[in-house]
Write a structure and sequence with these properties.
By secondary structure, the chain is α/β, with parallel strands linked by helices. It has three helices and six strands, in the order βββααβαββ. Helix 1 packs across helix 3.
Length: 141
C-alpha cells in the first residue's frame, strides 16, 4: 500500500458536483493506493502511521489533536512511468481487490477513534483542498 498524506486546513471530495466527503478543520488528506498483495498487515501499518505521525501544528498527530482525515482511493499511485509516455497501471490492484482493502483501512482508522471522511471508490472525483504548509509525505507499507 502507498499513501500520500497532505496536511490540509480543509478538504472535500465531490462526485458530479455533490460533496461525498469533507473535513473542515486542520487534518490530513490521505490518497491511498493498493497493490495486488496488500492485506491486513499493510492496512494495520498504514493506519498506525496515518494516526500517529506528528504532522500537525505543535508536532501533534491526528490522535493527539482529535483531527480528521479524508481518505481517497488513488490507484494512480501505482503508475509505472519507466518506459514510454503512457503510464502502466499493472501495479495497481483491480477494484474488486482494492476496494475492501481501502474499506479496511477506513475501518481501522475509525476503530482508533479518528473522524474519517471518504471519497467514492471508483468514481471520478474532484478534490477541493487548502493545503497547509505545504506538508506532503509519502508512506509505503
Amino acid at each position: 500500500m502507498r499513501a500520500v498524506l497532505q496536511r490540509v486546513r480543509r478538504a472535500a471530495v465531490l462526485v458530479e458536483g455533490e460533496v461525498v466527503g469533507s473535513i473542515d478543520r486542520q487534518g490530513l488528506l490521505a490518497l491511498v493506493g493498493v497493490t495486488h498483495d496488500d492485506g491486513p498487515d499493510q492496512v494495520a501499518l498504514l493506519a498506525r502511521k496515518i494516526a500517529d505521525l506528528r504532522l500537525l501544528d505543535d508536532e501533534r498527530s491526528l490522535l493527539d489533536a482529535s483531527a480528521p482525515v479524508l481518505v481517497v482511493s488513488q490507484f494512480t499511485l501505482y503508475a509505472d512511468t519507466r518506459k514510454g509516455r503512457r503510464p502502466s497501471w499493472n501495479g495497481a490492484a483491480p477494484g474488486d481487490v482494492a476496494e475492501p482493502v481501502v474499506e479496511a483501512l477506513v475501518a481501522e482508522l475509525r476503530a482508533k477513534g479518528l473522524e474519517v471522511a471518504t471519497g467514492s471508490f471508483g468514481a471520478h472525483m474532484d478534490i477541493d483542498m487548502v493545503g497547509d504548509g505545504p506538508v506532503t509525505i509519502l508512506l509505503e507499507a
